[in-house]
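G., before I forget:
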Amino acid sequence: MSGWLVVAGLGPGAEAMITPEVTAALAQATDVLGYIPYVARVAPRAGLTLHPSDNREELDRAQHALALAAAGGRVVIVSSGDPGVFAMASALFEALEARPDLYGLEIRILPGITAMLAAAAAAGAPLGHDFCCLNLSDNLKPWALIETRLRLAAAADLAMAFYNPRSRARPEGFARALDLLREVCGPDRLITFARAVSTPAQEIRTVTLAAATPGMADMRTVVLLGNSQTRRVGPWVYTPRSAP
Amino acid sequence: MSGWLVVAGLGPGAEAMITPEVTAALAQATDVLGYIPYVARVAPRAGLTLHPSDNREELDRAQHALALAAAGGRVVIVSSGDPGVFAMASALFEALEARPDLYGLEIRILPGITAMLAAAAAAGAPLGHDFCCLNLSDNLKPWALIETRLRLAAAADLAMAFYNPRSRARPEGFARALDLLREVCGPDRLITFARAVSTPAQEIRTVTLAAATPGMADMRTVVLLGNSQTRRVGPWVYTPRSAP
């Protein structure tokens, strides 16, 4: 098999956050696959076929990419952020699991700047101590498990990053999550809403849990909750390196 | 104040993983500060003063950087990986807290590829579902808190990334962590040791907790523990996107 398959992270939005190894892979590609707005970030050129597809078609996309690479293509699946954080890398390996004939295919996962770290950098350093990273969508797991994880993470006094805080299908989930967090973390805990990070539309807002409302998050928002030590310094918010 | 201060992530080691915005900031800098091996990654040039310093001097380094920027310097503090993950960003804000006169200073935190995400990419997608990121060093927190967090994270069935698994000062800590994890996660749970990620010396090894030994980690290793669903597919290890 002479083809190869790369899953590449495009970072949160800014061109200046795309790593040179991702840029190099895209320059060699014959085929680029991905969710429509991510493929739209790749410049068309002769010899390159773009294959944009809809959200929630991750497995089909992964199967398609495997087939193209097995046929000799130089194939890049693009993800926003980092491909290993709630993105296409896991979907690819799920598809590969059904194709033992392709276990020898050349596959590389190229990391990218994931949204929570770009958001943390824009806000200061709210993830500067132990933290967890939770997907608040209940598309692929039961809502009860999300609540269990929130309670245990709060008991561990971890800072938290939330991906997909509000899904179109179940907008009430994030309201329930905020209620739960206010109950277990108290009203004064700091929470940062980071929207469209690293793009011209970037908005960063830090409030207390008492002041947080579900409408502060949308599909383009990553949410960062501080731990018990997280505080403001000047215009910034940060979590100290030490814990009592 | 005409100076500025940037805290920049150099990524885990490969030049091709340094973002263009970090490269651009380094090209404009008059002063670069950081831990000796990280400053050694910055090429000397006319007009640039390099200020390497020892580990565990983070606060002194941050204060020095603030003073240089306040005096008009274009100052970059370099971190390995991402500056917001167990690195210099929190130390900077801790130093800034004592200098309200400098709250108006231009400060930017530039994210980088953090070790756990480069390691996950090299191994497959072991962090492809909810996960936590814990610093196993007890330099800045009590060991009992580390054990509490390990137990709660296991109860939440989170995948886990461990930074600083073994400290020179307390090499027995990681052995205790492995014993605890074997007890609460069982012997078959997959664990990945990723050493010198993205450098020519990179070594990636995935074993079961039953087969894991403390000596598999050293100061250059980041450790990734799977959740209950994590499995092998061909030469890779991945965590499915869904949870039961």
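The mean pLDDT of chain A is 96. The helical segments of chain A are 20-28, 36-39, 58-70, 88-97, 115-123, 143-155, 172-185.

More on Monday.
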